[in-house]
Amino acid sequence: MYRKPDWETRLAAYLEPLRARPFAWGEHDCCTFSAGAVAAMTDVDPMPEFRGRYSTAIGSARALRRFGRGTLAATLDAKFEAIEPAFAQRGDVVMSSGLLGICMGAFLVAVGREGDREGLIRIERARWVEPRAWRVQFGF
C-alpha cells in the first residue's frame, strides 16, 4: 500500500465532509477514521476485516482480539512500519493517549470532542501523550 501521487488532495477531500461528523463506534471512530484516511491516500483499506464487525467499545475490543493482534497498537504494528513519533510526517498514522488519528505535521487530526463540538479535532504535537506512529509509505 503506497500513497498515490495526489495523496494530499485525496486526504483533504476525505477530511472535509467529516469535520462535524460525530463519533460512532464502528462507523466513525478512531480506527475507521484512520483506515479511511489511509484508503483515501492509497486506494487500499488497511482494516477491511473490522468494517461492520462492532458497534460498541466492548465490540471493538472483541474485534481486535478476533481479527487483529489483540490491541490496536499491535494490529497497526502488523500492518505498517512503526516509526519514532518525532519522525511522523503529514499523512502518517499516529496514536496519542490511545486515540488514533492522522498526522498533519504540527498536529494530529482525530475523531473527538472539543467543548460542545463533536467531530474532527486537532491535537498539537507538543500535547501528544505516549505517542506511537506508523508510516504510510510513499510510492516510487
TrEMBL record:
Residues 3-136 form the DUF6950 domain. Pfam families: DUF6950. This is DUF6950 domain-containing protein. It comes from Sphingomonas molluscorum. The lineage of its organism: Bacteria, Pseudomonadati, Pseudomonadota, Alphaproteobacteria, Sphingomonadales.
